[in-house]
Amino acid sequence: QVQLVESGGGLVQPGGSLRLSCVASGIVFSANSMGWYRQAEGKQRELVATISSGSITNYADSVKDRFSISRDNAKNTVFLQMNSLKPEDTAVYYCNSQRRYPRSGYWGQGTQVTVSS
After folding, report:
1. Which residue of 8, 61, 101, 113 sits 20 to 30 Å from the alpha carbon of 69, by its own alpha carbon?
2. What angle do CA 83, 89, 93 make, to 5 degrees?
3. Strand, helix or coil for residue 65
4. What is the pLDDT of residues 2-60, one digit of tens each?
């Protein structure tokens, strides 16, 4: 059974920081690209950042220079370090895994991030 379990969300003031974690089980973690997506209320889910199996990273323009994605294959965990948070970063953040061969993809249940004073 595949599980992606996110943690680390919460309420933070503008300018603050949070670190999200996603622990994966039931997949060959090192063979998967991992990603963080977010969905704000009333909006579509959007890409935040991805990291390939070879640790190549990609970021949405809106979070470049503020967020950093990393992975620890020994712990089957992907992280999202979020700095200089803004109210517009408020959303449910979802962890995602993707593998090309054999093709598979999974989602976590999400963790709420609220940026407000």
Report:
1. 101
2. 95
3. coil
4. 999 999 999 999 999 999 999 999 999 999 999 999 999 999 999 999 999 999 999 99
Bridge pairing between strands 10-12 and 111-115 = parallel
CA 7, 12, 17: angle at the middle one, nearest 5? 75
- DSSP E strands, the chain: 3-7, 10-12, 18-25, 33-39, 46-51, 57-59, 67-72, 77-82, 91-99, 104-107, 111-115
Query: Which are the contacts of 25, defined by CB distance < 8 A and separation ≥ 6?
Result: 1, 2, 3, 5, 76
